[in-house]
Write a structure and sequence with these properties.
Shape: flat
Oligomer: single chain
Largest sheet: 3 strands, mixed
Number of domains: 2
CATH topology of the largest domain: Arc Repressor Mutant, subunit A
CATH architecture of the largest domain: Orthogonal Bundle
Bound molecules: zinc ion
Order of helices and strands: HHHEEEEHEH
Number of helices: 5
Length: 123
């Protein structure tokens, strides 16, 4: 019974992150999960998110406040400093590097900071 509930908690969290395109923070995921499972604790949500990240089911974007990404395909991120929106970038030059002398590259996490077109047009 307990096992069953645990499994559906995990499933719900994974679904929420996977279908979100906003790269939510753990806090945002928690609020969203709470709508469906009012008794879930923040610690549980954090733990499950960390666990999914470790398993490679989702990605953690290391910003000042970590954000989570359901799209694990290689891509870079553009962070708008005005609205805080995070955009995906799939340009090859941003996600791969030629051989590096120091060692073997496992992954590249590129974060570009800027002002998005939407905000630029509002200004
Ligand atoms: Zn913006
Ligand atoms: Zn992304």
């Amino acid at each position: 019974m307990i096992q069953e509930r645990f499994t559906s908690q995990k499933k719900l969290i994974l679904e929420l992150v996977k279908k979100s395109s906003s790269h939510p923070t753990a806090q945002e995921v928690y609020y969203e999960v709470k709508k469906h499972l009012p008794r879930i604790s923040k610690a549980t949500v954090y733990r499950i998110l960390k666990n999914f990240t470790k398993k490679g089911l989702i990605k953690e974007i290391p910003l000042k406040t970590s954000r989570f990404d359901g799209d694990v395909s290689p891509h870079a991120h553009f962070v708008c400093v005005k609205c805080g929106k995070i955009y995906n970038l799939f340009e090859k030059t941003l996600i791969s590097f030629p051989d590096i002398e120091i060692g073997r590259v496992l992954r590249v996490e590129t974060v570009i900071y800027g002002v998005c077109k939407e905000c630029e047009e509002k200004a």
